[in-house]
Design a protein that fits this description.
Blueprint: E1 3-6, E2 9-10, E3 12-13, E4 21-23, E5 28-33, E6 59-65, E7 73-83, E8 86-90, E9 106-112, E10 115-118, E11 121-124, E12 128-133, E13 141-142, E14 146-147, E15 150-152, E16 163-167, E17 175-181, E18 195-196, E19 198-207, E20 216-218, E21 222-229, H1 232-251, H2 255-265, E22 267-272, E23 281-288, H3 299-304
Parallel strand pairs: 1-5, 4-6
Antiparallel strand pairs: 2-6, 3-13, 5-19, 6-17, 7-16, 7-19, 8-9, 9-10, 10-11, 12-15, 12-17, 14-15, 16-20, 17-18, 20-21, 21-23, 22-23
Helix pairs in contact: 1-2
Length: 305
């Protein structure tokens, strides 16, 4: 099996970007990433006010996946996420509920032996991908913005072992990712996690037809729908409606039965909520996995049922 290494960086998701690699389904791609500030901050004396914000949230790519067509799901298996031994923690300017109680400060934070060393504390790292997605149907969307295409989802469950399903809008999907974090809490309330450079290894597949409107995440034990909106209630409505539709389609239940089950077993979890800010809130809604009833079937499973 061939493996591709991608090192080109872009700052928007767009159908007009020229792909830097074309791969077949099942091929492995390694994407080398910068941190979310394009490695512009190198010391604790470097403040956010000195950063060129036209070069934030770079994504590596795009990668053209053969056989991915509009209406399909692009399936992305996260095989491995590796992060550098040093990253930065900052307060995003004008971001988060504590913005009136903090000052501009940059902290260099080290990662060693799987642990984050912060002040006099140590805690486990959780390498994850902040920016990940595919091209929208038209126009350009900054990599720092989340949306139905993916983008800046800041979902800490998007890590090694996760599988994502992105609705394809253009031929080849044009996959990109970046903005790695060595650690980040749900909410990312200051607007930044432990921002770090690194590498991501992924493998692609395609589910033909039947794609929904927004990304879906599959972890070891749960299925999640992911939605973005300016207000919490709007994001919750989108994510729960997407999950309800998947349950009705795959479990053979009506909408009311699905809603009751979701209230019994479902979890609404906030990925990113550094409001007030220009970014939409990102929310995920999860239900337990059942081996006998996947919420998105591979093409081989579709044939066998």
């Amino acid at each position: 099996m061939s493996e591709h290494i991608v090192t080109k960086y872009v700052y928007t998701f767009s159908p007009d970007h020229e792909p830097v690699a074309k791969v077949g389904q099942g091929e492995v791609v390694t994407l080398e990433t910068l941190d979310c500030f394009s490695n512009q901050i190198q010391s604790e004396e470097d403040e956010l006010t000195s950063v060129d914000f036209s070069k934030v949230n770079p994504a590596t790519g795009p990668v053209y996946v053969e056989g991915a067509e509009p209406g399909d799901y692009l399936v992305v298996d996260i095989l491995d996420v590796q992060v550098a031994a040093q990253g930065i923690g900052v307060n995003g300017p004008g971001m988060g509920p504590l913005q009136d109680k903090v000052t501009n400060e940059t902290k260099l934070i080290h990662v060693e032996d799987g642990k984050v060393k912060f002040n006099d504390m140590e805690f486990p790292m959780n390498p994850m991908i902040g920016v990940i997605g595919v091209a929208p149907k038209e126009g350009e969307i900054p990599c720092g913005m989340p949306g139905a295409h993916g983008g800046n989802l800041d979902n800490k469950l998007i890590k090694t072992g996760a599988r994502l399903y992105f609705p394809v809008h253009v031929e080849g999907a044009l996959f990109q990712c970046g903005d790695l974090h060595a650690a980040m809490g749900d909410g990312e309330i200051s607007g930044a996690g432990l921002e770090v450079a690194g590498t991501v290894k992924v493998k692609f597949d395609v589910v033909k037809g039947g794609a929904g409107d927004r990304p879906v995440l599959e972890t070891e034990d749960k299925w999640y729908t992911i939605a973005t909106a300016e207000e919490f209630n709007d994001a919750l409505k989108l994510a729960t409606s997407d999950m309800q539709d998947l349950l009705v389609e795959n479990y053979g239940w009506d909408k009311t039965e699905a809603a009751i089950y979701m209230s019994l077993q479902g979890d609404a979890e906030v990925c990113q909520a550094c409001v007030p800010s220009e970014l939409d809130l990102v929310l995920r809604f999860g239900v337990p996995k059942r081996a006998d009833k996947p919420l998105i079937k591979s093409d081989s499973e579709k044939v066998s049922v």
